[in-house]
Amino acid sequence: MFLCAVNGEFVSGEYEVMWDASNVVSSIYFCRLSSGGMLLTRKLVVLK
């Protein structure tokens, strides 16, 4: 399963994205952020 919560170009600054996990099952998910040549991956754990 793949979900693209935000896609686009943004100016420099801080941003917050709210993810409604009510429609997914308990599992481990990964959040990937990319900017230019940088890539950041974080693990998200959903427990219900």
Can you walk through the features of this model?
This protein has a domain at 24-48. The chain has 48 residues and is mainly β. The protein has strands spanning 27-35, 38-46. It is built from no helices and 2 strands. The model has no long low-confidence stretch (mean pLDDT 88). It is elongated and about 35 Å long. Strand 1 (27-35) and strand 2 (38-46) form a beta hairpin. Strands 1-2 form a two-stranded antiparallel sheet. The two termini are 18 Å apart.
What's the gist of this structure?
The chain is mostly beta strands.
Features:
about 50 residues, about 40% strand, mainly beta, two-stranded antiparallel ribbon
Number of strands: 2
Q: How would a crystallographer describe the biggest sheet?
A: 2 strands, antiparallel
Number of distinct helices: 0
| Rg, alpha carbons | 12 Å
- Percent helix, as a range, is under 10%
Uncertain parts: none
Estimated structural class = mainly beta
Mean pLDDT: 88
The first-to-last residue Cα distance is 18 Å
User: Could you say which overall geometry the principal axes of the C-alpha atoms support?
Assistant: elongated
Q: Tell me the strand order in the biggest sheet.
A: 1-2
Strand content: 35-45%
Order of helices and strands: EE
